[in-house]
Amino acid sequence: MTTLCYAKLTCSIGIHVILEEIGKPYDLRVIDFSKKEQKSPEYLAMNPKGKVPALLRDDGSVLTEFAAIALWLSMTNPDAKLMPTDPEGMARTLEALDFAVGTLHMLSWRMYRRPDAYSSIPEAQEELKERGRDAVLAGLDVVDGQLAGKDFIVGDFTIADAALYYVECWAADVAGWPLPPNVQAHFERMKTRPSVQANRKHEGFA
Ligand SMILES: N[C@@H](CCC(=O)N[C@@H](CS)C(=O)NCC(=O)O)C(=O)O
């Protein structure tokens, strides 16, 4: 059965939401970061990147990287309609997904959350945290403009909304930052979806 390697409060939240949207049976393999399980020999043998998400597929192969996993799941489950099929809709979905994963997460949130990955100097780490927070908030302002008058980032719900959701969850639930109004409305809308509720239950956000 398809197995998602998942760790608490990580970007694997977004893939969990996508699997719930698809509604087919899957397993969650929880990787405990507090025990550094992502760097254990067993995990590295399966995913040498030592990161989540990783998707173990029915044929035994492993797929990594949020965008690749999300795209593969959407294309192999067309009935779930998680990705537009027209070129413009596809491009806009990837544009929004890459902004969430590549810019808001990897370039911005990571700097706020893991300043130690960039510097061992305490003063520099403080500055990195500030810059990371400012970059996430500036990016969410851009998304706020894109969401004006819309329920989802591109037409109906897509894999890009699942990516945006995990960033919203980090900003609002983890960091406690106020979200801009359209982003806040999107976050609330996401929380009404059974897929997101299943993840929030799993994460302990009742
Ligand atoms: N580029 C990867 C990033 C994955 C990533 O950074 N995952 C983090 C959790 S959000 C992780 O596994 N970190 C563990 C570590 O660095 O030890 C993707 O898009 O999936």
Automatic annotation (TrEMBL):
EC number(s) reported in the record: 2.5.1.18
Coiled-coil positions: none
One Pfam family per UniProt: GST_N_2
GST C-terminal domain ranges (all copies): 86-206
Primary enzyme class: transferase
GST N-terminal domain boundaries: 1-81
GO molecular-function term, one example from the UniProt record: glutathione transferase activity
Keyword field: Transferase
InterPro entries assigned to the protein according to its UniProt record, in alphabetical order: Glutathione-S-Trfase_C-like, Glutathione-S-Trfase_C_sf, Glutathione_S-Trfase, Glutathione_S-Trfase_N, GST_C, Thioredoxin-like_sf
PANTHER family noted in UniProt: GLUTATHIONE S-TRANSFERASE GSTA, GLUTATHIONE S-TRANSFERASE-RELATED
Name assigned to this protein: Glutathione S-transferase GST-6.0
Organism whose genome encodes this protein: Flavimaricola marinus
Gene responsible for this protein: gstB_1
